[in-house]
Amino acid sequence: MTSILPGSVRPTGRMLLAALVLTAAVPQLVQPALAQTSKIQKSAKPQAPKPANIERNGVLILVRGSLLALDHANKTGNYTVLRDLGAPGFQTNNAAKLAEIFASHRNDGIDLGGVAVLEPQLTLLPQIESNGMLHMAGFFPSVPMQVNFELLFAPVERQWKVFGISVALSKAGPEAPATEPQPPKPVATEIPDPPTPAVNPRRAAEQAGK
Fold this sequence. Notes:
Structural class: alpha+beta
Order of helices and strands: EHEHHHHEEEEH
Largest sheet: 6 strands, antiparallel
Number of helices: 6
Mean pLDDT: 77
C-alpha cells in the first residue's frame, strides 16, 4: 500500500500494510489572550463525523477520477497532472516526490484501469470529518487482486480535491494450496486365506486320528 496523507488525518485500521505519511507545514495557532477562552477551547470536544450530502454518481466521479489519475501517473511516470489535481496540501509533494512514493506501483506493474468499469463497494460511507474534509474508503472486487482504497478530499473553490490517497491490493478470494493433496490409500478388498491347521493344534490332532 502506498499512502499520502499530508495533514493530521490518519488512515483507518482497514489498511493492512504500513502507511507512508507525509506531513505538510501547518502554521502555528495563535494563542488566545484570555485565560477563560483557553479553558473553553480545552474543554470543547471535537465534532463527530457526519454523513456527507453527496449522491452515488458524485462518489463514483471522485473515486474513479482519483484512482485513474494515479494509474495514468504510474504508467507514464509523470506525476505532474496528479499533483495539479490535488488540494494545496497535497501539492506540497512535488512530482519527483510522488514518483518516489509510488515507485513500488510501477515496479510491480500495478494496473488500476479496471476501476473505470467496476463498481466500488464502500466500507466507509462518505462522511465529513471535524476538519471539514470528505472521507471515504472501500474496494473494487476485481479478480485475482482486489483494489482497496481510502481517500480524503479538501474543499477548494467549491470543489472536492484530493488531499490524501491510499491504495493497497489484496487477494480477492481463497487461495488454493500450491501442491495437490495426495489421494488416500486404497483399502484392501481381497478375502484373506482361511486359517491353516497349525493355528488350532487340537483340531489338527483330531483330524489326524480319524
